[in-house]
Amino acid sequence: MGKANPLMPQTVTVLDITTETPDVKTLRVAGKEGIPFDFMPGQCAMLSVPPVGEAIFSITSSPHCRDCLEFSIKRVGDVSGVLHELVSGRQLGIRGPYGNGFPVDEMKGKDLLFIGGGIGLAPLRSLIGYCFANREEYGHIDIVYGARSPADLVRKSEIGETWPEQPDSTVYLTVDAEFPDWSGHVGFVPSYVSELAFTPENRIAVTCGPPIMIKFVLQALEKLNFAPEHVITTLEMRMKCGVGKCGRCNLGSVYVCKDGPVFSLAQLNELPSEY
Ligand SMILES: Cc1cc2nc3c(=O)[nH]c(=O)nc-3n(C[C@H](O)[C@H](O)[C@H](O)COP(=O)(O)OP(=O)(O)OC[C@H]3O[C@@H](n4cnc5c(N)ncnc54)[C@H](O)[C@@H]3O)c2cc1C
Ligand code: FES
What we know:
By secondary structure, this protein is α/β, with parallel strands linked by helices. It has 2 domains: 10-98, Elongation Factor Tu (Ef-tu), domain 3 (Beta Barrel); 111-234, Rossmann fold (3-Layer(aba) Sandwich). The chain has 7 helices and 15 strands. The strands form 3 sheets. A 7-stranded mixed β-sheet has the order 10-9-8-7-11-12-15, with helices on both faces. It has a 6-stranded antiparallel β-sheet with strand order 4-3-6-1-2-5. The longest helix is centred in the middle third of the chain and has 13 residues, at 121-133. The two termini are 35 Å apart. FE2/S2 (inorganic) cluster is lined by residues 239-242, 244-249, 255, 257. Flavin-adenine dinucleotide binds next to strand 4, strand 5 and helix 1.
C-alpha cells in the first residue's frame, strides 16, 4: 500500500457487495495489504472488468479506513452492470487515485453544510467520514440529503442513525414525494435548503448530486447569500483516461479529471457553461 503509480492498474479483490437501493450497490474491495493506494476525499478511481471495460467512480469510504476501498455504484450501463453482478472473491482492476479532492484544509474552522442527492452521496460520504474523524478541526456539520423515494436513500442506517449521533451535527433527510412508509420531510433538496435558510457566515457548502439538483442548489445558495468561493461542487463529465491525456473531459483549458472534479462556484463561473 502507499503511493502507487496512478497509471498502472492494480488488482483488488471484492470483499463484499451490499445492495443499497434497487439500482445502487456498494462494493468493498482490497489489495493484498488493504487499500491499494492513499487518497483524499473527493478523489476517484477507474475500475476495470475485462473484457467489458472500465469506468470511473468516486471513492466513498473515508481515507481513515485502511482495510478496503468502498464504491457505491448505480447501474446505468455495461461496466456498472457487470460490477453489480460480481460476487465476493472476484478480482478486478483499479487505477487511481484521480482528481483533486475536496479542499479539506480550507474548510478547517468553518461550519460545514453538505448537500447531497441520490448517488451524489458517494464522494460526500468520504468527506463527511473524514470530517468526523477529524472532528475538532471543523465547526457545526449540517447534512441535507435527499432521494426520489425512501427506497432510494443510500446508506440509510449510517445517515439516519450514526451521523445524527456525531457531536455538533444535524442531519436533514427528504424524499421527492409522499410515500406510505415515510413520515419525514417531503420535497426536492434545493427547496429544502431554501426552507432551512442556512446562513452563510463562517460556513462552507459542499454539494454533489444529479446535475439538475446541483443547478438549483447553487441558485438556492446564491439566494441565501453564500459567496461563490464558499460553495463547492463536483462535476461528472464523461471520462476515459482520467489523467488529462485524452481530452474527453475538458471545459476550455480545464481538464475535469485532473483539475477537478471538485470546483468552487467561483471557479465554475469562470468556465464555459457547457457542464
Ligand atoms: C468524477 C466522476 C465520479 C463518478 N462517481 C460515480 C460514483 O461514485 N458512482 C456511480 O454510480 N457513478 C459515478 N460516476 C458515473 C460513472 O462513471 C458512469 O455512470 C459510468 O461511466 C457508467 O459506465 P457504464 O459502462 O456502466 O455505462 P455506459 O454503458 O458507458 O453508459 C450508460 C449510460 O450512462 C450515460 N453515462 C455514462 N457515463 C456518464 C457520465 N459521466 N455522465 C453522464 N452520463 C453518463 C451514457 O451516456 C449512457 O446513456 C462518476 C463519474 C465521474 C466522471
Ligand atoms: S478523461 Fe482524459 S483528459 Fe480527462
